[in-house]
Write a structure and sequence with these properties.
Elements: E1 4-11, E2 15-16, H1 20-29, E3 33-39, H2 45-58, E4 68-71, H3 82-98, E5 103-108, H4 109-114, E6 122-126, E7 140-147, E8 156-161
Parallel strand pairs: 1-3, 3-4, 4-5, 5-6, 6-7
Antiparallel strand pairs: 1-2, 7-8
Helix pairs in contact: 2-3
Length: about 160
């Protein structure tokens, strides 16, 4: 019943995820649409653009037919102003968009409520709850991190998609 998977490509702190190649090829072999996400540590637009360029290098040779997601939720982002965060997001997403991919922004509900309410890109809201109570527009909702799937060891996140990508 799964239709898509998002695969962690890596981060600037740890480099490309060592399981990235196996995870994306495995998901595609199972017939899933595949998007990827980068856990961001960028605190300036220049760093976000560098992160986007790294992502584009890391995915070269792979099929990415779902959004490329900018995961902005680290403690390094908490004290930045709303405008600084939007500038960082725009730098990443415009670089990804210019390369022909579909960008999306992932964060938790409170971050969207307090810091990212004017984000103009597609939004993927994490809120582990029976309903998503985020009052703004969102395109995907992550509602648990405790899902079990046959064939995958450990827990996985579960999401609802509200947009055809």
């Amino acid at each position: 019943g799964m239709q898509f998977a998002f695969i962690k490509v890596g981060s600037t702190n740890s480099g490309v995820d060592p399981q990235f190649a196996a995870n994306i090829t495995g998901a595609q072999s199972a017939g899933l649409k595949t998007g990827i996400y980068l856990y961001s540590y960028a605190t300036t637009p220049e760093q976000a653009q560098q992160e986007a360029n790294l992502v584009l290098q890391w995915i070269e040779g792979y099929t990415v037919n779902y959004p490329i997601v900018f995961d902005i939720e680290d403690k390094c982002h908490k004290n930045l102003s709303n405008q600084q965060l939007i500038d960082i997001i725009n730098a990443f997403c415009t670089t990804i968009d210019a390369a022909g991919y579909y960008p999306m922004v992932y964060s938790y509900k409170n971050m969207f409520d307090t810091k990212l309410s004017i984000c103009g890109w597609d939004r993927w809201v994490a809120q582990y709850n029976s309903t998503c109570t985020y009052g703004g527009r969102y395109d995907m909702w992550q509602y648990t991190s405790s899902y079990q799937i046959s064939g995958i060891s450990g827990r996985v996140d579960r999401n609802r998609n509200y947009k055809a990508y």
